[in-house]
Design a protein that fits this description.
Layout: H1 2-25, H2 30-34, H3 39-71, H4 81-89, E1 93-95, E2 98-101, E3 104-109, E4 114-121, H5 124-128, E5 132-140, E6 143-150, E7 157-164, E8 172-177, E9 181-184, E10 190-200, E11 203-213, E12 216-219, E13 225-227, E14 231-233, E15 236-239, E16 249-252, E17 258-260, E18 265-268, E19 272-280, E20 283-292, H6 295-302, E21 312-316, E22 320-324, E23 329-335, E24 340-349, E25 358-368, E26 374-385, E27 390-399, E28 404-414, E29 420-432, E30 436-445
Parallel strand pairs: 13-20
Antiparallel strand pairs: 1-2, 2-3, 3-4, 5-6, 6-9, 7-8, 7-10, 10-11, 12-15, 14-18, 16-19, 17-18, 19-20, 21-24, 22-23, 23-30, 24-29, 25-28, 25-30, 26-27, 26-29
Length: about 450
């Protein structure tokens, strides 16, 4: 289609040139061709009409595609971001309901979506200005991220300004910037005015938006899966950090599956899913928790040894060592002092996992040191399929001098759709002098 249009354009130009030459040869002057009702003026007008029709056709095709998305009830479709994104991807500028295509402007009706009216062509002067065609603001915790799109961004200078509502002085002002994105960080609660000014040799443009920084509740990944009988405090963070937690309320959508008390303590009662909602000063956030089976629970209830169940466990160089599946802390091992390398492995046969879609292990890796010491600890899930293919996922924690820290990690593996030979859980550690490190395999969920 593109090649056909280009071919037609070239043919039309050649035809016009040929006609002009023939008219000149016939005694028609250039002045008569170019006067108000002359042929050149008519050709120019026809070219403008054709240019506007082409721009309109481009826009109509994109809007027609989005009408189809709306009719199909496409999940990501909406009348704002989705429409803007699709128009931008087709090299069209969007400012509110005004869309610019090849210099021609159209007003659109977003609810349909369709063209509402033609607005004509931008003047040559307007085309040269550093016009802000997209001014987008996102919030991430207590940060405000400003993103721009500018016509004639090359050689344009941008000024980003933020000030609190009701105040005249600028909280922050960034001048002579060329980056089309800027982040205002670590803001307190409250309403802010964001001002953007652009400038080049032809003129200026500006835009203003109001945005409010509110309390944000964010949940950690560690919450997402628990095992039957598990108890733990829900892991979350509140931004800004100095926000009061006095009015924080917790609620479970299915308390018969997962209970949560007023202090945020979770108790998993049976298999299923529950949505936990945290509410603080009118702000709510949710976290979906799935309660799954735990291999250590199966071992504890079986009444058999791990050898009888076809499992293998081994350790080397562990100063501290424990295997106790009854409290779901199946393996606890490592070194507590001295220069020491340690490791342990726990292998589970295929019978435990075939037919499952995924496993999630909850690892507690502790690495501690003091004075001039150094420690490291690693956890690995290794899966071997019957065809010999091997895959692994891993996490590691290494601490330098003068550090003592407790960390929790979630390692998740999703099986491929083919027979499994074995799955092995591994932990390794190294302690220098009086350093200390160990790993706890607290649960294997499936």
């Amino acid at each position: 289609m593109k090649n056909l249009k280009e071919s037609k354009g070239i043919t039309l130009i050649a035809l016009v040139i040929t006609i002009i030459i023939l008219l000149i040869l016939a005694g028609t002057t250039i002045s008569s061709l170019s006067r108000e009702n002359g042929l050149l003026k008519k050709i120019q007008n026809a070219s403008e009409v054709n240019s506007e029709a082409t721009a309109r056709e481009k826009l109509e095709l994109v809007l027609l595609s989005m009408q189809s998305d709306k009719a199909r009830k496409l999940e990501e479709y909406n009348e704002n971001e989705y429409i803007d994104k699709n128009l931008n991807e087709n090299n069209m500028e969007v400012s509110g309901d005004i869309v610019t295509v090849d210099g021609w402007q159209f007003k659109i009706n977003r609810s349909t979506p369709e063209i509402e009216k033609n607005l004509g062509k931008l003047t040559k002067e307007a085309m040269l200005l550093p016009t802000i065609t997209k001014f987008n603001i996102e919030k991430s915790k207590n940060n405000i991220i400003v993103s721009l799109k500018i016509r004639n961004e090359e050689n344009s200078k941008i000024t980003y300004i933020i000030r609190k509502e009701g105040e005249e002085s600028d909280l922050e002002k960034i001048e002579n910037e060329t980056n089309l994105q800027h982040t205002f960080s670590n803001l307190d609660l409250g309403k802010y005015i964001i001002i953007v000014n652009t400038e080049n040799e032809y003129g200026t443009d500006n835009a203003t938006k109001m945005v409010e920084v509110t309390i944000s509740i964010e949940f950690d990944e560690i919450n997402k899966e628990l095992w039957v009988g598990a108890e733990r405090d829900i892991k979350y963070s509140i931004t800004p950090e100095n926000a009061s937690k006095d009015n924080l309320k917790w609620e479970s959508s299915n308390p018969d599956i997962v209970q949560i008390d007023e202090n945020g303590k979770l108790t998993a009662l049976k298999l299923g899913t529950s949505v936990i909602t945290g509410t603080l000063n009118g702000t709510t956030s949710t976290c979906t928790i799935e309660v799954k089976n735990n291999i250590f629970e199966d071992i504890a209830k079986s009444g058999k040894t791990i050898e009888e169940l076809g499992m293998n466990i081994s350790s080397s160089g562990c100063h501290v060592w424990e295997f106790n599946p009854s409290d779901m802390k199946g393996i606890y091992g490592g070194s507590w002092s001295g220069i020491r390398n340690w490791s342990w492995e726990f292998t589970v046969p295929k019978d435990m996992f075939n037919g499952k879609s995924s496993i999630t292990t909850i690892w507690n890796l502790y690495v501690g040191n003091e004075k001039w010491n150094y420690s490291t600890s690693n956890g690995i899930i290794e899966v071997i399929y019957e065809d010999g293919e091997k895959e692994d996922v891993q996490v590691n924690c290494t601490l330098p001098l003068y550090t003592c820290e407790w960390s929790e990690f979630v390692l998740k593996y999703t099986f491929k759709n083919k027979p499994i030979q074995t799955i092995t859980f591994k932990a390794f550690g190294l302690d220098n002098d009086w350093g200390a490190s160990y790993a706890t395999l607290e649960a294997i969920l499936y």
